[in-house]
Write a structure and sequence with these properties.
Strand content: under 5%
Helix content: 55-70%
Oligomer: single chain
Number of domains: 1
Radius of gyration: 14 Å
Distance between the termini: 42 Å
Order of helices and strands: HHHH
Shape: globular
Length: 78
């Protein structure tokens, strides 16, 4: 996360980078992903931000409880 954020300047990006830097555990970093995504989207656009976040998201595999992973949404049919 820090390497992606360091490529960009600005006060808001630096505040998020500071929060990432001082995160105390993997769970805290997991929840900071949304803030990183918003910051990257504002700078590079949503498509570029999603590409960058894909690599970041893959780093969390095996590091979080299953309940914290991405949820698969199922269609409800009657």
């Amino acid at each position: 996360m820090l390497s992606v954020l360091q490529a960009h300047g600005g006060h808001s990006v630096q505040r998020i980078a500071q929060r990432v830097r001082f995160a105390t555990d993997v769970e805290a970093l997991w929840y900071l992903r949304q803030d990183v995504m918003v910051a990257l989207s504002a700078i590079d656009g949503e498509a570029a931000a999603r590409r960058q976040m894909k690599a970041i998201n893959s780093m969390f595999k095996g590091g979080l409880p299953r309940s914290m992973g991405p949820r698969a949404h199922q269609r409800i049919t009657h």
